Amino acid sequence: MPARHRFILPLIVTLLTLLPSRAQAQEDYRFEVGGGLGMTGYLGDANTSNLWGHPGWDVTGLLRYLPNPRFAFKSNIYVGSISGNSADMENVFPDAATYKFKTTFYEIGELAEFNFFNYGMGERYRRLKRWSPYITAGLSVMLWTVDGKTSATVAIPFGAGVKFKLSRRVNLGMEFLMKKTLSDKIDGTQLSDPYEIHHAFMKNTDWISTLSFTISYEFSERCRACNYKE
């Protein structure tokens, strides 16, 4: 065998060995950052039944930690508007009084997510799916101003959504959340107890909903080139 073939043949064998390893390299990421737009709804004393009677807007930013394909932990920030008008309701307040309000709320929340499928793109043996519905719940803090008075409360957001991988790193999402606030003053102090029934604190509270459409980007590779992962 010519001398040069002694070097070329081992080189070819080495390259053929490396190619499958690169093709199967996992590209999982630890974090995901993104944002989105959507609409809001409100249920309270100024709107008791029609969640979308006075739709508002919302802008959101999110940061997810991705421990595995089934679970995620999300930190998010919401800025949105809500409004209501009791004149649109069938219920009548004492002395036929009517109330309306409009405000912008600010929210910071922490939520846990459970994907129904192993969400991701990659090796078939991991049974990853490019899309997945999910459920989510957590806690948040809200701040708003009505009638010149600024207030804050804790809220309990919960809901569901769906994720779709546009590519390995880029995700599209749609999420609907109902947020039970622990306050009855989202719509103003005048509507905190208009019938003077003195409901229990946890019962007589306002609700906010958000329907958001998001786009996000994953970063911080978990494993740049490996063939096995716990």
Mean pLDDT: 83
How many strand units?
8
**Count of DSSP-assigned helices:** 1
User: Oligomer, anyone?
Assistant: single chain
Brief account:
By secondary structure, the chain is mostly beta strands.
Give a description of the structure.
This protein is mainly β and 230 residues long. The protein has one helix at 3-23, and strands spanning 29-43, 56-65, 71-85, 100-115, 131-146, 149-165, 170-181, 207-221. The longest helix has 21 residues, at 3-23. It has an eight-stranded antiparallel beta barrel with strand order 1-2-3-4-5-6-7-8. The chain is built from one helix and eight strands, in the order H-E-E-E-E-E-E-E-E.
Topology (SSEs and partners):
Blueprint: H1 3-23, E1 29-43, E2 56-65, E3 71-85, E4 100-115, E5 131-146, E6 149-165, E7 170-181, E8 207-221
Antiparallel strand pairs: 1-2, 1-8, 2-3, 3-4, 4-5, 5-6, 6-7, 7-8
